[in-house]
């Protein structure tokens, strides 16, 4: 028999409906963290119902860390995370964060491939064929087709993620493999986040030196010697400032102002 603190079908439905607003609070600092916490909150409320309020606050703060994946894949991760929270609670914080971060990268790639590169073009191509004469029916058809696939994937992904996550925890705990899997997930998550740096951070130096017919670009010189060095250096500098207690929002606006100034001076392109 399940306890009063166990997640039930009603909680699953609440999280599913909340997932409709998952991307409404996307931000440049931690991307989808607010949407993740908003969606998983019914589960946390049930799990920490009889606990000290500070315990729930700790769990909520944990899910305010950086998170970013495909929105249709997020409910599956939320389901798995809910199962982990139910079993481990704050004592398993490293396990919860490690597996959560480890899943976001692979599922982001799968979601982008299946949805943005496959489903959306197909559905809107079909819709466009009905709208070529100016009819609005094609637009509604495209949206209906997309959501006829998207909504079930979200709901059953959330449900399967919770059920599969609970069974996975029980099997892994019985075999003593959970710590190993956690460490592997943390390592994978760090690699994936590190791999995002060159894609998310871009710095283009406009400085060039001319010697006769020879043109030397500072940007090309640095990139050819140490690929990805500029984004990595800037990211590490920002990380060090944040570790020292600097406000991330202040750092973002400071970087914007510095970038505008350097571009005006001709240093950045």
TrEMBL record:
Spans through the membrane: 136-153, 181-201, 221-242, 249-267
Keyword Transmembrane helix among record annotations: yes
Keyword line: Membrane, Sugar transport, Transmembrane, Transmembrane helix, Transport
Superkingdom assignment: Bacteria
InterPro entries: GatZ_KbaZ_carbometab, PTS_IID_man
GO biological process: phosphoenolpyruvate-dependent sugar phosphotransferase system
GO cellular component annotations of the record: plasma membrane
Protein name (database record): PTS sugar transporter
């Amino acid at each position: 028999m399940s306890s009063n603190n166990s997640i039930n079908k009603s909680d699953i439905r609440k999280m599913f409906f909340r997932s409709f607003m998952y991307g409404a609070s996307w931000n440049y600092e931690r991307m989808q963290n607010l949407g993740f916490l908003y969606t998983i909150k019914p589960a946390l409320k049930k799990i920490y119902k009889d606990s000290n309020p500070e315990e729930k606050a700790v769990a909520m703060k944990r899910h305010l860390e950086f998170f970013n994946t495909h929105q249709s894949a997020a409910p599956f991760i939320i389901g798995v995370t809910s199962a982990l929270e139910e079993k481990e609670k704050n004592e398993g914080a490293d396990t919860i964060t490690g597996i959560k971060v480890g899943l976001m990268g692979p599922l982001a790639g799968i979601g982008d491939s299946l949805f943005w590169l496959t489903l959306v073009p197909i559905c809107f191509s079909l819709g466009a064929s009905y709208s070529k004469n100016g009819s609005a029916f094609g637009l509604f058809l495209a949206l209906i087709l997309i959501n006829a696939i998207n909504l079930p994937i979200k709901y059953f992904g959330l449900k399967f993620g919770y059920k599969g996550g609970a069974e996975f925890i029980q099997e892994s705990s019985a075999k003593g493999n959970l710590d190993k899997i956690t460490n592997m997930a943390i390592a994978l998550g760090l690699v994936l986040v590190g791999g995002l740096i060159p894609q998310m951070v871009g710095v283009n130096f406009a400085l060039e030196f001319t010697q006769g017919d020879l043109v030397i670009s500072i940007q090309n010189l640095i990139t050819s010697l140490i690929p990805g060095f500029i984004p990595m250096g800037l990211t590490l500098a920002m990380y060090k400032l944040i570790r020292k207690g600097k406000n991330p929002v202040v750092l973002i606006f400071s970087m914007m102002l510095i970038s505008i100034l350097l571009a005006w001076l001709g240093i950045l392109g």
